[in-house]
Amino acid sequence: MFQAFASPAECRWLIETAHERLGPSTVFDYSTGAMRPDPQRTSRAALFTFDQIDIVTETIRARISASLRLPLQRFEVSQVLHYAPGQEFKPHHDYFDPSAAGFQEEITKRGQRVATVLIYLNDAFEGGQTDFPSLGFSYRGEIGDSIAFFSVGADGQPEPLTLHAGLPPTSGEKWIFSQWVRDRTPQR
Fold first, then answer.
1. Which of 68, 87, 96, 167 could tie 83 with a disulfide, CB 3.0–4.6 Å?
2. Domains and CATH numbers, the chain
3. According to DSSP H, which parts of 40-153 are helical?
4. What are the tens digits of pLDDT across the range 64-106?
5. H-helix or E-strand containing 44?
């Protein structure tokens, strides 16, 4: 956990920039290799694709890279997530299950997801914790606070204890910056 990982001004900038880009949040479909909406993830998301990254987003990504000691080339597209009351991301793992055929292909082509970083962009909401049910731990940051975790162990194997959920806010709106990191630079 990192307190004040992003400044309040950076957080406001990300919310304002994301607001116009919001669309349905998606999950990785291992059967098709594509991203698709799923009833387990009811939030909305704004993607910061590589052609849309601005100086604020890139500064935060560089800060994440330095903190995790993982190169930017391994970063997936950054996302800003918006949760209205009742919206959630039910318990899930961020790693790709290597026993699933579609995930194995994704791991081979683009690498395993090994780390997740979440930055709380606001705090004007109730509820909305990041919950780790297997660990009996929930986290709710203040503006700019961050939580980072590795979803695989030192041996590169998926860590089931990283099961987590984005709990729904009970009032107010929750805004989160989300960054997934792979174990290597994807093949082109």
1. 87
2. 8-26+35-182 (2.60.120.620)
3. 55-68, 101-110
4. 999 999 999 999 999 999 999 999 999 999 999 998 877 888 8
5. strand 44-48
